[in-house]
Amino acid sequence: MAELDRPRRSTTLWSNTIARIHAVLQREMVRVFLAEFVSTFVMMVFGLGSVAHMVLGENKFGSYLGVNLGFGFGVTMGVHVAGGVSGAHMNAAVTFTNCVLGRMSWKKFPVYVLGQFLGSFLAAATTYCLFYDSLMHFSGGELTVTGPRATAGIFATYLPQHVSLWQGFFDEAVLTGLLQMCIFAITDKQNNSPPEGAQALVIGVLVIAIGVCLGMNTGYAINPSRDLPPRFFTFLAGWGHQVFSAGDSWWWVPVVAPFLGAFFGGALYLLLVGFNIPRELESMEDSVIFEEQRTTALPKTSPNPFAADPLTPVTVSSKVSAKRPPAQSVPPLSDPALPLEHL
């Protein structure tokens, strides 16, 4: 009998464990954390993989355009993965801007950023494992940050020698501002937003456009969650402290500049466009549509039998006569044939 109770107890214990895990996963903070974690991982795996193709393939299996496409469609896939749960920010600067402008609670900020950083770090580790043999073959087993066989640029951005530090700062701030401004426009349902379900593709095209048109100077990190966690991974994986000291200690610029740029870009959109959308016109159009629907739903009335022909001129007297039946003649009171009941 005891042997029969053991499977039942184990089944009950397993069911209780599953129920507890499900209850934990249903909490809002847990859901948004996992959504940001997975979506950022997806975006970064596609993006870093495209850079690895360009660097390790020596432009035979990839190109700068391929990198832009990789990150752009990576963003699209990330939005599809988690857009309905957390909004799929995948960018600490975007999350910061939403909090500053009152679109999201500050208590969610560390949860979002932690999920993004861990997803980005895991994506860097995954890319490292996927391309390990090619990485060692290309670099000759020596992991370097600068030089003709440098490979640290696969994972993070580095400032070219001909670009100054503050020029790079300005570049990152402006590009992130454009990104945030356009994201607000794309997701603003009161404006000319794309059809439902097409926002992810349009945001991906936006990232591609930024890279193709403006990404030459700094590699357009425009995202602290994209640059800092993979850089920290390369520090741990063998590239050393030079990942932080290279380019006049460039590492802090892709972290700080996007926050400032995203805030100003989002604020400018709301100030110049978002708050000025004529919502009264939209309400008037809705009332007209409602009136048309209400009129269509009313039952059709039967035609008036006394209505005159519109082609025939009708006088006032004829209208009255048409509406009233002919009056019956009433005999005078002096008539001897008048019954007493009538009196």
Characterization of the model:
- With 343 residues, the chain is an all-alpha fold.
- It contains 13 helices and no strands.
- Helix 3 (64-82) runs antiparallel to helix 8 and helix 7 (165-187) crosses helix 11 (253-272).
- It is globular and about 70 Å long.
- The model is unreliable at 305-323 and 329-343 (pLDDT under 50).
* Distance from first to last alpha carbon: 106 Å
- Counting DSSP H or I runs of 4 or more residues, the number of helices is 13
Helix-and-strand structural type = mainly alpha
Report the count of strand segments. Answer: 0
> What sequence of helices (H) and strands (E) makes up the elements?
HHHHHHHHHHHHH
The helical percent reads 55-70%
Taken from the alpha-carbon principal axes, the silhouette is globular
Query: What's the rounded overall pLDDT mean?
Result: 85
Strand content: under 5%
Major sheet description: none
The rounded Rg comes to: 36 Å
Q: Which parts are unreliable, with pLDDT below 50 for 5 consecutive residues or more?
A: 305-323, 329-343
